[in-house]
Write a structure and sequence with these properties.
By secondary structure, this protein is mostly helical. A three-stranded mixed beta sheet has the order 1-2-3.
């Protein structure tokens, strides 16, 4: 099919609409409703402009608009071709969904600097459109750097030391690391070929260039863009960026930033070097440049999945899941053949829909229950049935279960790897093995979240999310109160002095001895001497067959409407196998500091990062009838989770529809892409991209 070039300003308008809207958003800072109205209007307008070009692009048209020349032969050009339309159509559509979610999240969490947040978000989407519609390496580099700058205020939004540190690391990796590599690769391509314009199937002059220089240019560009895609070992910025608000995490992981990295690698493989040259650039031991790229992807997806197994903080687990899932795209781009490339490109929207759902769910859990740690989510499915139901569907899609988006893209990549192994090189079989292994690991790190939420009760919690040898974790509760309820905060009853840590220990000891009256200082005769206090073996406390101290759950002797006495033996799963318990953000560990234990980072920064649990954050009372969680800092409240049935959930009782609506929308898109990929337009667009970039002998089977 021959491309028909059309001079049209719509690619430029798609870039400018949200950039202009950012000024109106800032000007409307005194009127939140007007400010957010500008956000929604810009998102809808951007999507409308992009969608208006889609029918013509599917027919082979390419929309171009030039703003002049940088250097001889290098223009600042915007071009909407099929590959750019794939990324732009996805990002602009999901910005609408994310904008509604942002309103619910930022208001529900009572976040500060909301005007700055929405303005930076708008500029970030302008940069994303510029990356999608860039006509050459210079243009994409400019917007690549603008995106890094625009997203820095979002990563550092909380303005805590941890947020600022994460923002600096983000800039160091993506702007000063990846950006420098992209610039060096661009200069080398210009030196070799005298041309940096994107050409379907690759720049012809590179095929006749010195193989060593061509190889160097390829890896400079691939690794430079791969930094944003989170390839190991250049991924460290991505988990730390989870300190940002959850909509930003969705932007980073599903809509713009990491997808811009994967998209950049796609441009390098398909439109700078071409799939055939990438496969022909030979290295020792039978490897080509494409196979090296796929091998890096295979190692990253396996290692990141294993690391995700040990992450107790939900957003951290999702962050490493993103590192793994983006590597599917990198792996597929190195598979020389029709199926592999189709699978790699289809995984861009598939991952976007599924991962956006997962992050939206994590954010809704945080706003509604202030729960961030998997080890505190036992039974949370009855409190958040719609949210955790959507999380389950998206998790199954990430694992590649049929009828969901992840299955379709992974199926294409598996077939592509098998065909490449049978026809070209046996090395591709190892890549197929990595794909299959990663699917198993996906189940391994998502299943504990689902199991904990739906199949565990607060009073019989099994801390499986903290996977350690022996595989399966500890069967002891990680919750502060042993019946799943959380002790009341110290400030709840100013006249109650029993919250003192030493007093709690004395109470437990005296209760175990059966002597004296707890808390009665006048009865000195009943207070045991130090020699009478049970030793480290705690012989007189209730223990199980293995000698582990456990509370007495005899329902006939206590009122379960009151919090249980805490039996702190120091051997909870989080204490003995902390995994990522020292994550310097989130509110799930605030109780550690208030109960007298050391702060995770040694200086109280973790408490500061979780600010707002006692002040600033609003709870479910804003959204409806979530008053039973008021004052709650993560994990089940006293008495356990309140049950919300399906009908009440559909009425929006578990959260606001500003967050529930986007969650269900993103989940539905993941299902539809798995069931009707052609009707959604993505698979048709991807097949057009691949058909125009492969030589005739390896065209569609």
């Amino acid at each position: 099919m021959t491309d028909a070039f059309i001079s049209d300003p719509r690619p430029l308008l798609a870039v400018l609409v949200s950039f202009v809207a950012a000024f109106f958003i800032v000007a409307s800072h005194r009127s939140p409703n007007v400010r957010e109205g500008w956000t929604i209007a810009a998102a809808v307008a951007k999507f409308g402009i992009v969608a208006s070009m889609l029918p013509a692009v599917l027919d082979g048209a390419v929309f171009e608009w030039s703003l002049g020349a940088f250097l001889p032969g290098i223009e600042f050009a915007l071009r909407a071709d099929a590959l750019g339309m794939l990324f732009a159509f996805l990002a602009s559509g999901l910005w609408i969904v994310t904008s509604f979610y942002s309103i619910g999240y930022m208001r529900g969490n009572d976040e500060t600097n909301q005007t700055r947040y929405f303005a930076a978000f708008a500029v970030s989407l302008s940069a994303t459109m510029g990356i999608a519609f860039a006509g050459n390496l210079v243009t994409i580099f400019v917007f690549y750097e603008i995106l890094s700058i625009a997203t820095y205020p979002l990563v550092a939004h909380d303005e805590t030391p941890e947020a600022r540190s994460a923002g600096r690391k983000y800039l160091a990796y993506t702007m000063f690391g990846g950006g420098v590599l992209v610039l060096a690769g661009t200069a080398l391509v210009y030196l070799i070929a005298g041309n940096v314009s994107f050409t379907a199937g690759g720049i012809q002059e590179l095929a006749n260039a010195d193989p060593g220089l061509a190889m160097l240019a390829f890896f400079l560009l691939a690794i430079g863009f791969g930094v944003k895609a989170g390839i190991m070992p250049l991924h460290q910025w991505l988990p730390e960026a989870m300190v940002a608000p959850t909509p930003v995490s969705g932007l980073l992981h599903a809509v713009a930033v990491v997808k811009s990295g994967a998209f950049g690698v796609s441009r390098v493989v398909l439109d700078v070097f071409g799939p055939e040259l990438v496969f022909d650039l030979s290295l020792p031991f039978g490897f080509s440049a494409g196979l090296v790229l796929s091998t890096i992807g295979a190692i990253t997806l396996t290692a990141a999945s294993i690391i995700a197994l040990r992450k107790d903080h939900l957003k951290q687990r999702l962050a490493y899941s993103t590192v793994s899932q983006l590597s599917y795209i990198i792996l597929g781009l190195g598979l020389f053949g029709w199926y592999g490339l189709v699978g790699a490109l289809l995984h861009i929207p598939a991952h976007a829909f599924m991962k956006l759902t997962l992050f939206f769910c994590a954010g809704n859990l945080h706003v509604s229950t202030h729960t961030d740690y998997i080890s505190e989510m036992a039974g949370i499915g009855k409190r958040m049935p719609l949210t955790m139901g959507a999380f389950t569907v998206a998790s199954l899609g990430m694992a590649g279960i049929p009828l969901l988006a992840g299955f379709v893209s992974k199926y294409y990549m598996l077939i592509g790897g098998i065909r490449m192994g049978a026809q070209l090189t046996p090395v591709a079989y190892y890549l197929v093995g990595a794909l299959l292994l990663s699917g198993v690991l996906n189940i391994a790190y998502f299943w504990p979240v689902i199991y904990t939420a739906f199949f565990e009760a607060e009073d019989a919690h099994d801390a499986k999310p903290l996977v350690d040898f022996r595989m399966g974790g500890e069967s002891r509760s990680t919750l502060p109160a042993t019946d799943g309820g959380r002790p009341e905060d110290e400030n709840d009853d100013p006249e109650d002095e029993s919250n003192d840590t030493d007093a709690e220990v004395d109470d437990v000891v005296e209760s175990a001895e059966g002597d004296g009256t707890v808390g009665d200082p006048s009865d000195d005769a009943d207070v045991p001497d130090d020699s009478d206090i049970p030793d480290a073996e705690l012989d007189d406390l209730p223990t199980d067959a293995e000698g582990v101290v456990r509370p007495d759950f005899n329902t006939s002797e206590r009122d379960f409407s009151e919090p249980a006495e805490r039996v702190d033996t120091g051997d909870y799963a989080v204490d003995s196998r902390p995994s990522d318990a020292d994550v310097p953000f989130g509110v799930g560990r605030r109780d550690n500091a208030t109960e007298g234990s050391e702060a995770d980072d040694g200086d109280g920064a973790a408490v500061e990062a979780g600010r707002g649990d006692d002040e600033g954050h609003t709870d479910d009372g804003e959204h409806g009838d979530g008053h039973d969680d008021h004052g709650h800092a993560g994990g089940p409240p006293a008495g356990g989770w309140r049950h919300i049935d399906g009908l009440d959930a559909l009425r929006g009782r578990e959260s606001t529809w500003f967050t529930l609506g986007p969650i269900l929308t993103a989940m539905s898109l993941a299902v539809l892409l798995g069931v009707i990929p052609y009707e959604m337009g993505f698979l048709e667009l991807i097949e057009l991209i691949v058909d125009t970039r492969l030589p005739e002998e390896v065209m569609r089977p």
